Known about the structure:
Oligomer: single chain
Distance between the termini: 27 Å
Number of strands: 9
CATH class: Alpha Beta
Radius of gyration: 14 Å
Structural class: alpha/beta
Pfam family, one: AhpC-TSA
Number of domains: 1
EC number: 1.11.1.24
Order of helices and strands: EEEHHEHEHEEEEH
Domain Thioredoxin: 3-149
Protein name: thioredoxin-dependent peroxiredoxin
GO molecular function, one term: thioredoxin peroxidase activity
CATH topology: Glutaredoxin
Helix content: 25-40%
Largest sheet: 5 strands, mixed
Number of helices: 5
CATH superfamily: Glutaredoxin
CATH architecture: 3-Layer(aba) Sandwich
Amino acid sequence: xxxxxxxxxxxxxxxxxxxxxxxxxxxxxxxxxxxxxxxxxxxxxxxxxxxxxxxxxxxxxxxxxxxxxxxxxxxxxxxxxxxxxxxxxxxxxxxxxxxxxxxxxxxxxxxxxxxxxxxxxxxxxxxxxxxxxxxxxxxxxxxxxxxxx
Length: 149
């Protein structure tokens, strides 16, 4: 499935790091940064999460709620949040259902090998639940700036 700017963001129900059910529709009336990343505690993903953490005040002041999504388990998410003091929820998408809805689970190539994996992508969702922007070329160390501009 491909998601385009201007269309309704696909709603989903998924569990966060604490096993709580998160529904995108629960965030109506708020702007949401829904970011997909490959794996907890890897260099790029850690840089991205820490950049969002370091700018959470500005993001919140601009009305954004931040939600991260990766195929990691709830336990890995809990460890990642604790280790880096992350002030936002992480969705455990082990079945890749949310990834499939947003088209972020794709064939990737690395050092001549092909495999299925998460394509690092951020969806900016407006108060009405529509896709306001899609950031495909994520700069992990400057991601908050990309969102806020």
